[in-house]
């Protein structure tokens, strides 16, 4: 039997959905969650276009970076804070989730512009690949090719936790001046690691789809559609950034 309290995405847990399903007169639906996810994507794109235009509206590369970095930092910090608010207060997700999308858009737009200035065309490829991976994983889930059972869930949880640990150790080591080119450079090991991370992020989408389905079936309240859309957006943002990093590493080998 699947233990539904476990998932590598800390946002989408059956424990959370079960707790929030108490005393609800209007239930969450999959279609409602899809609509909220689409709206959040539109907000991400709109905010990303703002910081993108900020960057490319300045001809001098150094000045462009200076112009966009405050917005990138604001997006990163604001996104982190609103994510915490959403996680610990799901009832506020109707407000906090759209705000999170705007902050993430500011972050992604600025970072994407910086990468685009270094490698022309990389952002279009990253967006296309992210959408393709999303579509493929949705098909894989809906067709039942991947069975979301206990072993699958535990495997994805372990892999995601391992990646988080590697990134944490890498961050701490970098603060002390350690050379981590083997992990962040364009070498074979680094590219292989990025491929693994992209694969794990893609598998997290399957878990997200499964938990949204189960939450809808369990009668979670209507506002949890925003919460489910938020959880899915967290995974999509991670997937896009990892694909962008992978493409940058591949371009760096040329």
From TrEMBL:
Keywords assigned by UniProt, alphabetized: Membrane, Transmembrane, Transmembrane helix
Protein name (Swiss-Prot/TrEMBL): Uncharacterized membrane protein, YccA/Bax inhibitor family
InterPro entries registered for this protein in UniProt: BaxI_1-like (IPR010539)
PANTHER family with a match to the protein in the record: CONSERVED TRANSMEMBRANE PROTEIN-RELATED
Pfam families from the UniProt entry: BaxI_1 (PF12811)
Transmembrane regions listed in the UniProt entry: 38-56, 68-88, 95-115, 121-140, 152-177, 189-211, 223-241
């Amino acid at each position: 039997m699947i233990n539904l309290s476990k998932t590598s995405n800390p946002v989408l847990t059956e424990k959370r959905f079960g707790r929030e399903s108490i005393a609800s007169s209007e239930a969450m639906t999959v279609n409602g969650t899809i609509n909220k996810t689409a709206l959040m994507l539109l907000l991400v794109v709109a905010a990303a276009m703002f910081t993108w235009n900020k960057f490319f509206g300045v001809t001098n590369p150094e000045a462009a970076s200076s112009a966009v970095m405050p917005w990138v930092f604001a997006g990163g910090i604001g996104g982190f804070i609103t994510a915490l608010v959403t996680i610990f207060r799901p009832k506020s997700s109707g407000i906090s989730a759209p705000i999170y999308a705007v902050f993430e858009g500011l972050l992604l737009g600025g970072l994407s512009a910086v990468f685009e200035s270094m490698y022309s065309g990389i952002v279009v490829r990253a967006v296309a690949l992210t959408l393709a991976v999303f579509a493929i994983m949705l098909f894989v889930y809906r067709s039942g090719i991947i069975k979301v059972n206990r072993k699958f869930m535990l495997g994805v949880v372990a892999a995601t936790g391992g990646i988080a640990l590697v990134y944490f150790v890498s961050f701490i080591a970098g603060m002390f001046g350690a050379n981590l080119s083997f992990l962040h450079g364009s070498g074979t090991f680094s590219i292989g690691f990025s491929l693994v991370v992209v694969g794990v992020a893609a598998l997290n989408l399957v878990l997200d789809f499964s938990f949204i389905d189960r939450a809808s079936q369990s009668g979670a309240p209507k506002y949890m559609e925003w919460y489910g859309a938020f959880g899915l957006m967290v995974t999509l943002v991670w997937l896009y950034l990892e694909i962008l990093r992978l493409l940058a590493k591949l371009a760096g080998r040329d």
